[in-house]
Recover the amino acids of this structure.
């Protein structure tokens, strides 16, 4: 696939087929994604990948914590977005709810949808990206570049993905079940699998603020 086509066709997948992703495919995908750039090639990342029964167990454990509305304790604190980001976030949420037919007063449906995120939208596998604790904030940038590289390369294998702050909300569960030491902080989770193209939610596409609003030009 042409690189521009790949960039344009990526979207956050929120419904997956149950088909497992073979370990070999994920290995190839992650190996190639290691080509992502990082500050002075520091490669400040480590992964833990879950599939099969381990993934099922993780999903159920996280979903039940979310259903009980247990307090989240992400290693990277959740942001309070100032304007204009909070309005963009709200608009995004409202558009998604509209597509899903979730009314603003339908608390039950909203809770179900919230829990779905913690169930990784039923993806058969997930990638958890860690860095060392107490490392420079630039390590976050490195992880961002890596995560986007994974999500683009995934398209080459017919895979879809979504980055999930939700999946990084209970890092102690992830560390315990995937044997990750406390010295590693969970930055982001990604659900990955074959997209269910019939699912209405996978028709959801997001807008972008036009370039003219976020870019100034000099010397042209
Ligand atoms: C760091 C990060 C965390 C995210 N966490 C979530 C999440 O917890 N739940 C969710 O539904 N989407 C999550 N997303 C997906 C965003 O909502 C999505 O990228 C954004 O709305 C733009 O849509 P697109 O990816 O389809 O282009 C996350 C994306 C990023 C980059």
């Amino acid at each position: 696939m042409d690189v521009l086509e790949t960039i344009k066709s990526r979207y956050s997948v929120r419904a997956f087929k149950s088909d497992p992703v073979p370990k070999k495919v994920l290995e190839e995908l992650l190996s190639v994604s290691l080509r992502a750039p990082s500050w002075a090639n520091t490669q400040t990342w480590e992964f833990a990948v879950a599939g099969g029964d381990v993934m099922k167990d993780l999903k159920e454990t996280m979903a039940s914590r979310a259903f009980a509305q247990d307090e989240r304790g992400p290693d990277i604190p959740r942001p309070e977005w100032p304007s204009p980001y909070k309005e963009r976030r709200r608009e995004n949420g409202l558009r998604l709810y509209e597509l899903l037919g979730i009314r603003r007063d339908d608390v039950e449906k909203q809770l179900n949808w919230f829990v779905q995120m913690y169930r990784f939208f039923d993806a058969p596998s997930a990638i958890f990206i860690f860095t060392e604790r107490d490392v420079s904030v630039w390590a976050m940038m490195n992880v961002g570049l890596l995560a986007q590289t994974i999500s683009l390369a995934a398209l080459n294998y017919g895979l879809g993905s979504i980055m999930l702050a939700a999946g990084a909300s209970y890092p102690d569960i992830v560390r315990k079940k995937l044997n990750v030491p406390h010295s590693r902080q969970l930055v982001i989770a990604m659900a990955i699998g074959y997209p269910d193209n019939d699912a209405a939610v996978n028709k959801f596409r997001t807008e972008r603020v036009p370039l003219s609003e976020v870019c100034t030009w000099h010397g042209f």
